[in-house]
């Protein structure tokens, strides 16, 4: 059974980005997370990460539809 909450380093590995990028996403509010324990360690709920990924797919699809790829004429 997968854990409900993920470390920021696990999120970074899942998204193939750096730990600092995930920290920035969390601190900016882009990716929902919670602080746990006396040292305030960040955790991201796996379900929230999946929702975030789906939102990014939707945003990307919208961007692609508004910015079609223009084929270059062969020279």
What does this structure look like?
The chain has 75 residues and is of the alpha+beta class. It contains three helices and three strands, in the order E-H-H-E-E-H. A three-stranded antiparallel sheet has the order 1-3-2. Helix 1 (8-15) crosses helix 2. It is elongated. It starts with a strand and ends in a 9-residue tail after the last helix. The model has no long low-confidence stretch (mean pLDDT 94).
What order do the helices and strands follow? Answer: EHHEEH
Radius of gyration: 17 Å
* Structural class based on helices, strands and sheet pairing: alpha+beta
CA-CA gap between termini: 56 Å
Unreliable stretches covering 5 or more consecutive residues:
none
**How many individual β-strands?**
3
The biggest sheet, with number of strands, parallel, antiparallel or mixed sense and barrel status, is: 3 strands, antiparallel
Percent helix? 40-55%
- Average of per-residue pLDDT values: 94
List the total number of helices.
3
Shape: elongated
Indicate the proportion of strand residues: 5-15%
Q: How do the strands of the widest beta sheet line up side by side?
A: 1-3-2
Please outline what is shown here:
By secondary structure, the chain is of the alpha+beta class.
Topology record:
Elements (H helix, E strand, L loop, with lengths): L4 E2 L1 H8 L3 H9 L6 E3 L4 E5 H21 L9
Antiparallel strand pairs: 1-3, 2-3
Helix pairs in contact: 1-2
């Amino acid at each position: 059974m997968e854990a409900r909450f993920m470390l920021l380093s696990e999120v970074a590995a899942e998204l193939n980005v750096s730990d600092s990028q995930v920290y920035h996403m969390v601190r900016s509010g882009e990716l929902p997370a919670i602080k746990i324990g006396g040292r305030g360690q960040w955790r991201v709920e796996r379900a929230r990460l999946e929702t975030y990924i789906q939102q990014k797919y939707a945003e990307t699809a919208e961007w692609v539809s508004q910015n079609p790829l223009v084929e270059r004429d062969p020279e």
